[in-house]
Amino acid sequence: MTGDQSHSARVPMLLLLIRHAHAGDRDPERWPDDRERPLTDKGRKTQRKVSRALGTLDLAPTLVLTSPWARAAQTADILARELELQRPPIPAKPLAASPDFSRLADVIGEPGPDAIVALVGHSPWIEELASELLADSPSGLRIDFPKSGVMGIDLERPAPGAGELRFFLRPRMV
């Protein structure tokens, strides 16, 4: 590669796929609408530790998009608060539906070179998205994605098979 070509190459973004923190079991009596189920104390504590670890690793997101469901939004809020992010998390309905790359590309927009974009979502969506980004199929990889887990994927744009795994942080539950 010549010097001219290296200057024109796009620097990929780092996509952080974050599964929401622990929210306990479904309880139709307490939360008839499961979308409103909140994080537990255990989940908040674990997410604070994970968020601080991302900061220590210099992996603070420049953009945080979250499922609008309570437990994901609360996870994203902890991430933003612990890392003292300048922009609050943005609720994005595509993060609560089956992975759709055109909708994801729309909500991510043009984050710019060296951007770190966090997507906070749910299982099985997060596993399916990771598998599709890395293996070009929603079932191409079996992934045990724990609550508060963070997968870092390098890519230029969200598309099937477009990602390269950088890391997978699997927190111990506290």
Briefly say what this structure is.
With 174 residues, the chain is an alpha/beta fold.
Textual characterization of the structure:
This protein has helices at 3-8, 41-56, 70-82, 101-108, 125-135; strands at residues 13-19, 63-66, 90-91, 116-121, 150-155, 164-169. By secondary structure, it is an alpha/beta fold. It has a six-stranded mixed sheet with strand order 3-2-4-1-5-6, sandwiched between helices. It starts with a helix and ends in a 5-residue tail after the last strand. The relative contact order is 0.22.
Give the tags.
174 residues, single chain, 6-stranded mixed beta sheet, 5 helices, globular
Question: What layout of secondary structure does this protein have?
Answer:
Blueprint: H1 3-8, E1 13-19, H2 41-56, E2 63-66, H3 70-82, E3 90-91, H4 101-108, E4 116-121, H5 125-135, E5 150-155, E6 164-169
Parallel strand pairs: 1-4, 2-3, 2-4
Antiparallel strand pairs: 1-5, 5-6
Helix pairs in contact: 2-3
In total, how many beta strands? 6
- Poorly predicted ranges: 1-9
Helix proportion? 25-40%
State the order of secondary-structure elements, H for helix, E for strand.
HEHEHEHEHEE
Question: What is the approximate shape?
Answer: globular
Report strand order across the widest sheet.
3-2-4-1-5-6
Compute the separation of the termini in Å: 48 Å
Mean pLDDT: 90
Q: Tell me the β content.
A: 15-25%
For the biggest sheet, the summary is:
6 strands, mixed
Q: Total number of helical segments?
A: 5
